[in-house]
Predict the 3D structure of the following.
Amino acid sequence: MKKFLLGTVALIAFAAPAAAADLAARPYTKAPPMIAAVYDWSGFYIGANGGWGSSHNCWDQVPGGIFVGSDGCHDATGGVAGGEIGYRWQAGTWVFGLEAQGDWADLKGSNNSAIFPGLFTNQSKIDAFGLFTGQIGYAVNNVLLYAKGGAALTDNRFSTYFTPTGVLAGRASDTRWGGTIGAGIEVGFAPNWTAGVEYDHLFMQDKTYNLTTPTGALFSNIRDRQDVDLVTVRVNYKWGGPVVARY
């Protein structure tokens, strides 16, 4: 019996490696491809912006529409804050959009009259502005570089003061239309959130105003040449987000 058991153990020990060698090799399974999330810029968005602006103004005195001389220039500077709403659609790496923006502003500046130095001070102020623009951009996943252009308007106040006393001599206010071009960079930092920086230049051209005294009498006729520069930081929330689209 003892010899039988020893023979059986020896047989099993000999047969086990041979049986293992006859087993089929485990089939190789290719690892699944990596899936990259591609940021989608399409959709509606709404957001807020804030920053700095400068309005360059040059006045000419034109009584009765006749040019009599330049009355000097000044920069009206200050802060801006407001919001924007728009829509973008993406075709490959190209992004197209439409946007409306409206901002409160406090751009204020003045200069001593060049024609009546020491007697009068000319002042301009922008209280608000709006932009209505089209956009074209190039997207590198969640980074968007874009240019924009369209129409602009500014809400202005033009005033002349008696320099020795600071008393108002004449004033005019107006909402003025012009054009704008700009550029910016925007980054998607979350599925529905983007942040960016934008620069805009507003071409407001020339316009003539009648400055009137506090009693309503005509004080002077001026022609104002105005250009505005804006730098703003923007944060937007959009409807849409990253999509799984590239392998």
In short: The longest strand covers residues 69-91. The first helix runs from residue 2 to 22. The chain has one domain: 34-246.
